[in-house]
Each structure stands twice: as C-alpha cells, then as structure tokens.
Structure prediction request, 185 residues.
Amino acid sequence: MNVLGINGSPRVGGNTDILLEEALKGAIREGARTEKIVLNNLNFSPCQECENARDDGTCIIEDDLQPIYQKINEADVIILASPIFFGSLSAQMKMMIDRFQCLWRAKYLVKKNVGKKRKGGFISVEASTRKNFFDNAKSIVKNFFAVIDVDYQEELLCSGVSEKGDILKHPNFLKRAFELGRGLS
Prediction:
C-alpha cells in the first residue's frame, strides 16, 4: 500500500502538518509505505489553460509539479491536508489542483481512461468555529478526487485551532488523524 500525503500549508510544523504526520503514522502502523509532499517547498506555476494541451492528460508546463503527477498516479491512497484561508483551501493546494485541468480535459473531453480507483481523505484546520467554512474546500477536494479517480472516504475537519502547534492541545484530533491514516490503508 502506497500512501501519499500532500500538505498545502505554508507553515511547516504547523497544525495541518502535524495532523498529516499523524495520519501517515497511522498508515505506517498498517504496513503502508508513505510519502509526504510539502507544496510550499515546490516551485510551480498556476494553470495557464494552455491552448496546445496534450490529449493524454499530462501538463505541458515543466516545473516541480511534473513528478507529482506520477506520484499521484502511483499512489493507492491520497491524503490532502490544507488549512482554511478565507473559506477555502490554501493557495498552494488550489494551485496544484488547478494544474490537473489537463487531466480533467483528457477524462471528460477526450474521454481517455486516466487512472485507477483508489481511496482518499481530507484533513483541514481552521481558526474560527464556523463549521460551514469547510464546505467550499470539501467541494473542491471532492471534485479533484473525482477527476483523479479517488473515492473521498475520510475527512478530519478541525475548527477553533489557530496558533502554530495548538493542535497538540487537542489529543482527540491527533487520535482521529492517526485513525484516518489507519482506516485508509
């Protein structure tokens, strides 16, 4: 089992990163191989909606996102983790997702079979206690997962957590992240 965790937070060692680490530890407990990608460490462009797009679903922009396409394609489980910024995903996560427009085009316009079925989960943290602040982000993740043939199976939505490391004061969230990783593996 190959579990890929993708961190969309700009804050290394922050709440989102800590929860993703716990989920990956849960996957390891079940015998999975894990890898974590920190999008903020990559140098990549937003989608350019290229007119000369390829029919095979690959992006023509050559940057640090190219290896990520392959890693996502090879993963058996994908866990996305992002803080909520202004009621949505972080810019880093949204930028990565938008770059899969090439795959959307291949799947829905060219009618190409683009991938294998696999499982996915979403971890998110936000400072307020407005539960509806997660709605937009969940919708985007579900749409992304549909394009890449991932079944949205698990989620951990943590509200009321704002300062770096505050998630450590919430052992229930940490336990749930660990169990999310175990359950998907």
Notes: The helical segments are 15-29, 66-74, 91-98, 101-108, 135-147, 171-184. Residues 2-42+51-168 form a domain with the Rossmann fold fold (CATH 3.40.50.360).
